[in-house]
Each structure stands twice: as structure tokens, then as C-alpha cells.
């Protein structure tokens, strides 16, 4: 079985212009095959243009059992909307979101002017994902995403993101020690590595995309939604024109409904 360069780039949004292919590493469902798999995956990554720093970070990864446990336990997404909002602290997200909007009106107005996305939506996502940056995760990003690429459950989806993570290490955008969420998401609004490459924006103009910086993170989130079809000035509740962009942010229906509801309350 081979994995073409075109399909990998499409999945990971990598901008690495190399040729050739390598035999795809075989996934597994336990830690037992992880080290042999990494050796196979290293050959695959090298064939896709990953350099020495990225390959060394791959070699240093460990099997992230806590990531596998989190991936198997998605129970909160099966709750009712009311219960989900209770667990996630919906009223707190609204109150803090309103306060942040009032404190930085020009910033959020500029984002809406540039991308068409209102403040409430960005603040609802920020609050839901990391409590407005208060906790951006304590899992090693590269180990987490590589473990998910190895795991058979969703290997096809996470392989591209694993290659993207290695590319980000090559670029110096993240380090082998960078921490994030259980599934390898990084920053204030929890971007997967492939999405950092595809949608990341240097919002503060310092020459780099750093999603642990709130300005870059908010601009990148707005850019993601705009690229997913957000239409300025139109509604974003279920059934309205911009709700599909919120659906693209997270696949869980209850999460999508919560973001739309909280955003409307913040902007009200």
C-alpha cells in the first residue's frame, strides 16, 4: 500500500514540494507495535520532505496512553444541550466573553471587519476551548498526534496532522516539548497541526504564527471560519447561513449548538 504525496498534502495542508512515496506504516491498537511503526512512519515522513528536526522529534515520541483514553471517551458530546452547557460553564463563558468584548472593542471590531465573524462567535469558541486561555493543555503535542496516527481507530485522519506537526517542528513553529490538548491541539482555540498550517494567521505582525498568542489565535480562528464559508452579516444559528462554518469547527452537534447559543448571548 502506498500513500501519494498529493493525498497527504491535501490532508495535512503541508507546503512541502518533494516527490516520491513510501510504504505506509501499519497501524496498531496497543502500545506493543508503536516503536516498529515509528520506524516505518519515519521513512514515510522523510519521503514527504520532513527534515532532521522533525524526524528526531518523531523518534523521541512516546505512546500517549492518556490520549488514547481520551479518544475513546467522548461522553460529554452525548449530553443534552442544557447538561453540556452546565458542565462546560456556559454562564461563565457568556459573562467573561461580554467583559472581554467590552475591554477590547476595537480588536474584535477589526476582526469582524477583516473576516466577517462577530466577536461573540470567536469569544464563545475561546471560552469553550480553553477557558479564554486559562488551560491550553498539558499533553505533549507531537506524542499525542503521532499516537493517534498510529492508532487504527482514526489513523487516516490523524496521519496528515502528524506529518503537519513534524513540519511545524522543522519550521520552529512548535518545539518537541510543546504541550497542548489530548488530541494534539495547540493554542488558545485548539488548532490541530494541519489546521495551523492551513489557516494560521500572523495576527500581531511579528513574522510568525503562534497560536499561544491570543491575537494570532483569534485571527486564525476567524480565518478558519471565513475559509469554511462564513458570510459577513448573516445569521449563525442552526438553519441559518453561517451555521455550517460552526459545524466545520467541531463535529459534535451539541458543541455546535452551544457555540451558536453562547455567541448570541455574548453579542446580545
Automatic annotation (TrEMBL):
InterPro entries, A to Z: Lysozyme-like_dom_sf, MltB-like, SLT_2
Domain of life: Bacteria
Domain Transglycosylase SLT: residue ranges: 34-235
GO BP of this protein: peptidoglycan catabolic process
Keywords: Signal
Signal peptide: 1-24
Keyword Signal applies: yes
GO molecular function, one term: peptidoglycan lytic transglycosylase activity
Protein name (record): Membrane-bound lytic murein transglycosylase B
Organism, scientific name: Palleronia aestuarii
Native organism taxonomy: Bacteria, Pseudomonadati, Pseudomonadota, Alphaproteobacteria, Rhodobacterales
